[in-house]
Amino acid sequence: MAGRQPAPPQRRPVVALYERMIEAIRDGTYPPGSTLPTEPRLAAELGVSRPALREALILLQEDGAITVRRGVGRTVSPHLPPRGFEYLKSVEQLLSEGRQVRTSALARAYEEPTDFSTQHLLLPGTSRVRFWESLIEVDGLPACLTQEWAARDETLAELLPDAAAAFDGPASTTSSMLRLLLEAGRELPLTGSSSIVATTLGRQRGEQLGRPADSPAVLVTQVVRLDRTPLLAAKHMLPPGAPALPVWQAR
Q1: CB 138 within 8 A of CB 101
Q2: Is-contact 42 53, C-beta < 8 A?
Q3: Of 15, 23, 113, 166, which cross-links 118 as Cys (Cβ 3.0–4.6 Å)?
Q4: Quick count: other Cβ atoms within 10 Å of Cβ 178?
Q5: Other CB atoms closer than 10 Å to residue 249's CB: what's the count?
């Protein structure tokens, strides 16, 4: 999923408010076709200042989520723009949809950068970074093999120390790196970009997923950033029979 350009620190409260309002539209608090309350009432309902609200409303209008008409006010668009940048979600959450999801650790280690992690995390060749490999099962069946690399510990300690602590905590063996990163950075404007290609599993991945080596598969590569700094790079391999992975195309 491609993302909106990262917001500078002083804009983060506005972006967070924008995201709250998008979610309120999607959950029916402000349903499509309805007219939003007046600015004073809306600011009171959301517990925010009117200047911050106005900026968030401008973003909503720019992205086509609301329309403004003289004498009518702000109306929620009947057809929301494609969902692409409002929220990042972990693979566990995307695959769950009411199913039982279990994440098992296959590898938790530090390693020298690979071509993939060097390219996407902008790593110096002398660094060693966290590498996780996890198997995600859905309803007891292997559904996704995930490989994840984190930014250097120094970068995490500076920008998102809660994530670094979570990576060393007890949840590390039962969660993907992405899931812990998103939980630690829920108040920050994290953005993500992804690409999707068709491929085959190969021998090793086939064995890990219990499928023949020549089985077709979907490979999703993903990079998560805070502002312009990449924090995580990942590969998600989904074999035949895995639950459908929802994909929202960014504008």
Answers
A1: yes
A2: yes
A3: 113
A4: 26
A5: 9
What's the sign of the alpha-carbon dihedral 169, 132, 157, 9?
A: negative
Whose structure tokens read 């693979």? 91
Residues 241, 140 contacting (CB under 8 angstroms): no
Residue 242 in tokens: 């895995």
Question: What is each CA distance from 177 to 52, 85, 108, 168, 212, in whole angstroms?
Answer: 33, 20, 10, 11, 27
pLDDT higher at 4 or 12: 12
H-helix segments, the chain: 12-26, 39-46, 50-62, 91-96, 115-121, 153-159, 161-167, 177-184, 203-209
Which residue type sits at 84? G
pLDDT tens per residue across span 106-150:
999 999 989 999 999 988 878 899 999 999 999 999 999 999 999
Q: Which of 175, 190, 196, 130 is nearest to 7 (CA)?
A: 190
pTM across the whole model: 0.67
DSSP 8-state class, residue 35: B
Q: What are 150-182's pLDDT values in tens digits?
A: 999 999 999 999 999 999 999 999 999 999 999
Q: What angle do CA 30, 26, 11 make, to 5 degrees?
A: 85
